[in-house]
Design goal:
This protein has 97 residues and is of the alpha/beta class. The chain has 2 helices and 5 strands.
């Protein structure tokens, strides 16, 4: 299992840089178009996963997206989960403190 971290706000998704994995990327939600932002996010996730290289023989990578849901970001998180359903990426949400 490899974990990527995301912050979910009402108006944007922020994919945080991982160890040796690119830079922090922001996907804005303009005019309520969460579909476009999610597609851009999914493309960025795919690109990061591609950089992982091959898994050990007989194994496979299981990507996990750990989402920190920010205040007022609940609706966007639920939309993200719906749009990313069956993507092969486990999505785990946590409320921001």
């Amino acid at each position: 299992i490899r974990t990527m971290r995301l912050q979910c706000y009402q108006d944007r998704f922020v994919l945080l840089a991982g160890k040796n994995e690119g830079s922090t990327e922001v996907f804005g939600i303009f005019n309520g178009d969460v579909d476009r932002a999610t597609l851009e996010l999914a493309t960025a996730l795919r690109d990061r996963i591609a950089l992982w290289g091959p898994a050990l023989p007989g194994g496979r990578w299981q990507p996990r997206l750990e989402v920190q849901v920010q205040p007022r970001g609940d609706m966007r998180f639920h939309q993200l989960r719906t749009l990313m359903n069956d993507s092969g990426i486990e999505i785990v949400g946590r409320e921001s403190q």
